[in-house]
Structures are given as structure tokens and as C-alpha cells.
Amino acid sequence: MFKSHRLSSHSNPFTEPQQLDILARSTGLIRRASKHFSAAAFLLGLLKTTAGGAPQLRCIASRIGDLLHRSLSKQALAGRFSECSSAFLLGVISRLIVSGKQAPTEKILSRFNRVIIEDSSQFAFHKSMAGEFPGQGNQLGDTAGCKIDFAFDLVGHSPVSTSLWPSTTQDKELGKDLLELLHAGDLLLRDMG
């Protein structure tokens, strides 16, 4: 199943679903084998729904259920999102970055102590959460959402910072906090926000 979705190649560290399962067990995402949940289906379901512009729990659960040929409720999936799922996804990102490094890239990266990439993603919530996570608002009333800001060191293969912000916070404001974490010899790459 995992290979059929074109996520595997000779440069991919996850050419077998067992490798994802090992990572999922080491991070606590999976504690015991189940026909109703797999690391590969979790990752593919999350990627496909996010890429398709529908990262709601209902859609992710439906996609995972389709991949496993079983039903999965959004409530059951919500229970999977925790520090364990974050650690699993960070592990996937780390392994993919490490596997994607090639000799010329290593030579360029070796000129810096750290090469930090930073970006933020915005997620919309139901408008009932506008008190805790205010959104920009629109002609239809209150909106709600948050931004997750993430910075990753390509040389050290580790996260530098993660933070949660109201969706009303501009990206240029988020980046100010990261400046305090920079050292001499670091290269910081950010989007145009």
C-alpha cells in the first residue's frame, strides 16, 4: 500500500511501511498493532488532505479509512493528535531531509554552523473558538484560527523552534522571536511574509 502512493524511492528512508511503524512506535504514535490504524495511512491521509486543501479531522479520518479499507471516526483520530504525533511527523521530516542531502549540498551547508528554514502555516477553526483563537474576521462575522511557526536546522537535522500564535499575528512579527536564537555563522531562510 505505501509504495503505491509514490512516496518511496531509492532515496527515501521509508521504502517499507515497517520503517514508519518503527518510528511510530518509538515516538508513541502507535503502541500496539491494529487493523484500524497504521503509520503509513496516517502520514498519507494527512498529506493528501492537506495538499487537497481539506485538512479537517473528518476529511483526514475519511482518507485514512479509505487507505485502510476500514472506517475511522474523527473523534478517534483526534485522540491520535498529541505530542506523540508531533514527534512522529518531526521524525519523518528529519529522516527525509537527511536522506535528501547530497554531496554538493553538504559542501554548501558546511559553510554555516546552522542553516535554519522558517515558515508558518495557518489553520482555520470553527467560529465558536474566536474568543481563544481570534481570526481576521469578515463580512459574515467572527472567524477563528491559529498559526504554527516552525524553524528547522538543516545542518543539525533538528527543530530550532515551534510556536503557536493567533491567526491575526503577521508573519513578520513571528520572525522577531527567532532572531534572539541566532548565533554567529547561522544562515536563516524565510518566506516572503
Description of the molecule:
There is one protein chain. The chain has 193 residues and is an alpha+beta fold. It contains seven helices and four strands, in the order ααααααβββαβ. It has helices at residues 17-27, 39-51, 57-68, 74-78, 83-100, 103-109, 171-179, and strands at residues 114-125, 144-153, 158-166, 186-190. A four-stranded mixed β-sheet has the order 3-2-1-4, covered by helices on one side. The radius of gyration is 19 Å and the shape is flat. The N and C termini lie far apart (38 Å). Residues 1-11 have low confidence and may be disordered.
Largest sheet features: 4 strands, mixed
Which segments are poorly predicted (pLDDT under 50) over 5 or more consecutive residues?
A: 1-11
Helical content class? 25-40%
> What does the oligomeric state look like here?
single chain
Shape: flat
- Give the N-to-C terminal Cα separation: 38 Å
How would you briefly describe this protein structure?
With 193 residues, the protein is α+β, with helices and mostly antiparallel strands. Helices cover 39% and strands 19% of the residues.
Question: What is the topology?
Answer:
Blueprint: H1 17-27, H2 39-51, H3 57-68, H4 74-78, H5 83-100, H6 103-109, E1 114-125, E2 144-153, E3 158-166, H7 171-179, E4 186-190
Parallel strand pairs: 1-4
Antiparallel strand pairs: 1-2, 2-3
Helix pairs in contact: 1-5, 2-3
Key features of this structure:
4-stranded mixed β-sheet; 4 strands; disordered N terminus; alpha+beta
